[in-house]
Amino acid sequence: MFRIGVDVGGTYTDLVATDETGRTIFAKSPSTPADQSLGVMAGLEELARRLGVTRAEMLATTERLVHGTTVATNALLERKGAKVALLTTEGHRDIIEMREGLKPDRYDLRSPPPEPLVPRERRFGVRERLKANGEVLTPLDAGSLGDAIAAVRTSGATSVAVCFLHSYLNPVHERAAVEHLTKELPGISVSRSSDVLPQIKEYERVSTTIVNAYVEPVVRRYLTNLEARLTEAGFKGSLFVVLSHGGMAPVEEASRLAAGTVLSGPAGGISGSRRCADLLKIPDLVPFDMGGTSTDISLIADGQVSLSADGMLAGQRIALRSLDIASIAAGGGSIASVDSSGTLRVGPESAGSVPGPACYGNGGTAATVTDANVVLGYLDAAAFMGGARPLDRAAAEAAVDRIAASLELSRLEAAAGIHKMINLTMADGIRLMTLRRGVDPRKFALLSFGGAAGLHAAEVARELEIKRIIVPTVASVLSAWGMLTSDLRYELSRTHYGAGPRISAGEVRELFAELERQAAGRLRSWFNGPVSIERSAEMRYGEQVFEIDVSLTDLDLAAPDIVEQIEERFHRRHEELYTYASRGQEVVFVNARVAAVGAVAPIDRDTGSATSSGACSPRATRQAFFGGWREVPVYSLDALQPGHSLAGPAIIEAETTTVLVDSGDRVTVNALGWLDIRLR
Amino acid sequence: MSTKIDPITRSVVQHRLSSIVKEMGEAMLRTSYSQILNSSRDFSLAICDVSARLIAQADHLPVHVGALPWATIAVEERFKDVVPGDVILLNDPYHGGSHLPDLTVFVPVFAGDKRLLWTIVRAHQSDIGGATHGAYNPGATEIFQEGLRIPPIKLYEAGRPREDLLDLLALNVRNPREFRGDLAAMLGAAHLGERRVSKLFAEFGAPVVEAAIEAILDATEQQTRAVVSTWKDGIFHGEAFLDDDGHGRSDIRIAAKVTKNGSDIEVDLSGSDPQSTSFVNSSHANMQAAVAMAFAYLIDAEIPKNTGALRPLKVIAKQGTIVWADPGRPVTLCTSHPSNEIVEAIIKAMSASCPERAMAGWGRRFRIAIQGEDPRTGRDFIWHMFHARPGGGASSGGDGWSSIGEWHSVGGLKFGSLEVAEVRFPLHFRQHEFRAGSGGDGQFRGGLGVSLDLVLETEKPAKGNTAGDGVRYGPCGMLGGEDGQPHRYRLLSEGREPRLLRTKEVGIELHPGDCLEVRSSGGGGWGPPSLRSANARQRDAEQGLTGTRAEQRS
């Protein structure tokens, strides 16, 4: 039986299949943005070819297909989601457009405000109101609700978000409104805030619910369609979708909580990175995925990924918990420019894939990071993409020369400067991430993947005083590979509202028992393996506004001093993150969270053994810039065997990536055939 | 400077410095204790050199940033004997501060034995002692009634905290726990900056960093001059008014005479009205900051806001006027008023020189604080209103932002969740929605203010204080655009006549069930209303943003 991972990226759809023998096969196929399922089906065809069977044969013997999709992401980025209406508490319909009074840029007072996902004429107030303790203050007014529903009908909306104040404590009015809505407008898509995100803070809740309403019909249509195509092609197994929190869920669940799929793609990369951390027994890893237009950075600390509810995508607040991934709008295609003060800047503009860097020869004239890499001799113009797509060195030089002229520098100095600036941007992104999580970057290893990462990893690591870089051979399809090890995951949260300022032991037990019952029940309806439970709580000191997520998984809730234990956990975590704790201060328990996790059986992989030893021979040498022009050896990654070792300066090339090894840095090829680089 | 600096090193150093202040901000946001800091973000970060030049800053609150070089001057004048591990603290407006609630800490950065830079954190405290909670005291006639005055003092000496001094400070504020927590966060952020700058020195060598800094400032100056020189030359006048000072004086005028010549700008505020007996006076540093803020809004957003950008700007003012009070006068309101009016007067003047850049008026500040007992817990509470943000001014770029803030905060102050407020305070937010018709009409319409109906759910009477301005003068229209509707706050109380709230009241008697009917101002419009497109007017009508005449009055 096969398991297949499919990751749809902007340019390529990556596929990985494995079977019980541990055999792992990769395939790549061009993505088809208009209907991603076409590219998926074509990719499956290619994967089957590589396995030496027909697609029907392969699919008939596939037990599970795990899918990372950018359908929701693209709908949001390109503003191609559903026409949404909002039903909300009367007198409060401008919450999303107020954005809590914030605006991103302090000195740009001449840019107009962004258009909200739901314009004001489709935001309808309904007479109803709950008190802060969840009791009904104003009962839901049938006439007012009727008027609002009639207005939804007239507006032509195809999807409705329902979000009333304090509904996280008591969903009675939201439920009644949804019931009327679906009766009056059968077939309309509905997202209810007490279902999507039953948590205090109305801006987060209404915004997340609106995003869900906006992408739900698009995601549902796509997944239903894909499922049908797969069935038609002979697939009899289960289709799962990777969610932003890194776990996977069946199609129905991924559609219901469609706002939870916006990081579906990169989430696979984090799963893959976590698997790398496991295989290598390196608990502290910085996954560094640098591509053409953007770079994704995250952290695996102590073997754990971190989840965050601070998400923002395309200007929209999405407060569902998702993997903490910092996406930087910079990559190999980032454009270098000289501003009016004579300062060199790299990005945020990107040449994208069309026209692409000047050296692609598709009409691009702006100097990009990739052009600088060609000038510096890091990229072999003739052998790019295995020689399938040679680069135009002269065009790269001409582009870099224009930057050099504005800076009154030589071509080489300008190219080295571009390389330096992009590395700084990357290092900043990683440093902010470690600062947020209260960890020291120096003890981490950098996991370099994505097409452009290998050219920059060494300098980025040096900026951060990181001493070790890992380049896995599965680098180019790490996301799809990672999806094969995703667990099933269902998350629930609930805001605590108690009688007193401090939560009681009884309340803690009751809260978690109820959440665990619900979460485990839902997960068992998806799968019949063992289910484990993760518990956490978001807490803060009395007057603070930011809550901290504290893991409670290994605490015994029956312990008589459970509240004290929970509070002590919080103090310790606060100290870790922010260098101080205020023991003796009031601790507020805000949200309880539970995740039910169904672990899939791990795939055994032959981790191999060192088969070669000592030095290996380069394929060639070429001139490249390592502090000065040097004739450096060039190795082919495919030719390197476990046990091989080499020292920089050197260049290691593979079909889809190139790795720079600086002077004095040492590379060994580990048992998996991956590069393990120790910095000098 | 003898060290020759290449443009790449300069770019790298500039990038580093700006990422250092960003990291300081992140640390501050995450660790500060009070709502005003971690939620409303009323703090700023900067790096200055020992010549009090602003080298890098994080974009938090514009009104803080231009003031920090003046605070640095005060520190440099007071202490000649700064050693590694020292930390300096100040707040006094007559010693480089802006107003008393803003504490500023300075950590020196050394390269070897040579002291070169300061990492600086300024943050607004929720209380600083004085006659009323939270420092905003409309009744004050001298600064001593506004709070504890701190000239530059050494809070740490060579790495050792002066615990006795800390005790003295904490004893003089109403919430010592929060005060200490926030101060710890400020110190943490400043020390983080110091460590990162030290590493920069170690990596490049101090002479290279120093030379890079000179080059950064020079380059920014050139960049700014290139922009300014495209504006029309001449002498331009602008004025703006404060409603009143709360002590009987009305229509207090701020007058700006701006002389633009080539790439130089001279702003002369000396025609402004005499100082007041109340807290509407500005301190000198705050006046400087307000002028810098107006200038920063007019140049390109991308230009780094450092001393280089301010070199084309010369400021003239007269001590004893409303924009620069004599020592001892109360000044607490100054970061909002007269800052907002100073900015507005300058931008009005400049609208004749660079009309495409001059934006219409942003909101003025009108705050309310309520003090009472929460019947659910029996505990006392104090609540500060950050809700009902006013609208922003329109510009050549389009309509103004709604519910966004004042000239001095411009979308940098966050109002918290209403749900959280209702859980924590005995308050009911019956309505919190855009105030239709409040934005000034124009080719581009001003942003909308907010209608808030807030019901008090105490069981015992409570007290309210107000502080602010702008119930008679709305944010100004620009180049033919109309003014935004001014603020209009009323108190609706069973058995009492509804009454308009004044902007500077102390001890307003509030009864259980009272409703504060808050209508915040809309932003000013830009360009003649006759030029507004039919499409834009139709969109306004569809969205219910125009309001009836009656709504506009209410």
Task: Using brief descriptors, characterize the structure shown.
heterodimer; A: 680 residues; alpha/beta; 9-stranded mixed beta sheet; 6-stranded mixed beta sheet; 17 helices; B: 554 residues; alpha+beta; 5-stranded antiparallel beta sheet; 13 helices; 20 strands; 28% helix
What is the topological layout?
The complex is a heterodimer of chains A (680) and B (554).
Chain A: E1 2-8, E2 12-18, E3 24-30, H1 36-51, H2 55-60, E4 62-68, H3 71-77, E5 84-89, H4 95-98, E6 123-126, E7 129-130, E8 136-138, H5 142-155, E9 159-163, H6 172-184, E10 189-192, H7 193-196, H8 202-232, E11 238-242, E12 248-250, H9 251-256, H10 264-280, E13 285-290, E14 295-297, E15 300-301, E16 304-305, E17 307-308, E18 312-313, E19 316-317, E20 322-323, E21 326-328, E22 334-338, E23 344-350, H11 369-375, H12 393-407, H13 411-437, E24 445-449, H14 457-463, E25 468-471, H15 478-483, E26 488-495, H16 505-524, E27 531-541, E28 548-551, H17 562-578, E29 587-598, E30 614-615, E31 620-625, E32 629-636, E33 644-647, E34 650-653, E35 658-661, E36 666-669, E37 675-678
Parallel strand pairs in A: 1-4, 4-11, 5-6, 5-9, 9-10, 13-24, 24-25, 30-33, 32-34
Antiparallel strand pairs in A: 1-2, 2-3, 7-8, 11-12, 13-14, 14-21, 15-16, 17-20, 18-19, 22-23, 25-37, 26-29, 27-28, 27-29, 31-32, 33-36, 34-35, 36-37
Helix pairs in contact in A: 3-8, 11-12, 11-13, 12-13, 13-14
Chain B: H1 7-31, H2 35-38, E1 43-49, E2 54-57, H3 62-65, H4 68-78, E3 87-90, E4 102-111, E5 114-124, E6 153-157, E7 160-161, H5 163-171, H6 176-204, H7 206-228, E8 234-244, E9 250-261, E10 264-268, H8 284-298, H9 307-310, E11 313-316, H10 339-350, E12 366-374, E13 379-384, H11 418-424, E14 427-434, E15 450-456, E16 462-468, E17 488-492, E18 499-500, E19 508-510, E20 515-519, H12 534-542, H13 549-553
Parallel strand pairs in B: 10-11
Antiparallel strand pairs in B: 1-2, 1-5, 3-4, 3-6, 4-5, 6-7, 8-9, 9-10, 12-13, 12-16, 14-15, 15-20, 16-19, 17-18, 17-20
